[in-house]
Amino acid sequence: MLQQLISAEEIEARTREIAAEIRRDFGDEELVLIAVLKGSFIFVADLCRHLGGDVKVDFVQTSSYGAEKSSSGVVQIRKDLDTNIEGKNVVVVEDIIDTGLTLSHLLQVWQTRKPKAIKVATLLSKPAARTHPMNVDYIGFEIPKKFVVGYGLDHGDRYRNLPFVAELVDEASA
Ligand code: IMP
Known about the structure:
Layout: E1 2-6, H1 8-26, E2 31-37, H2 41-51, E3 55-62, E4 77-79, E5 89-97, H3 101-111, E6 117-125, E7 138-142, E8 148-149, E9 165-168
Parallel strand pairs: 2-3, 2-5, 5-6, 6-7
Antiparallel strand pairs: 1-9, 3-4, 8-9
Helix pairs in contact: 1-2
Bound molecules: inosinic acid.
Inosinic acid binds next to strand 5, helix 3 and strand 8.
């Protein structure tokens, strides 16, 4: 069963604000957005259209949760960047930061490639679930430690096409 948490209109408004914050920080400098697949494909598509200016987009893919609702605890990079980020202004775009394991691993790897700046934008954050603390520069919405789907986020690859974010409630526990 789905329970809507964040509407399409709220997401749209907040995405515009985040784009404005990013442009405030970087001016009209070139940006490289790195979207972490698959969950961030819709957020990055909307975010990049609100950013304007000189924007490049690249994608990485890490091991996913599969059909599980919790992480295996191991991060594997399945598809790395095509772009050389040395000397670039990088904004990593995530759908959700849960434990922080994925992102802390990726940031560690990418810092060694000497970007000019590297910042993190996430649509959703579950601060209560964080086991790997990190600085997150742009957060769309903080949510409780619940499993959510929609607007790119999935469960077993379903629900990505929902225009809103909803909690996935087990029928048994509802
Ligand atoms: P972390 O490494 O624990 O921060 O997990 C990050 C990744 O786990 C996200 O990019 C999502 O793909 C997935 N994930 C974490 N929480 C959820 C959720 O509530 N719904 C769907 N995917 C999630």
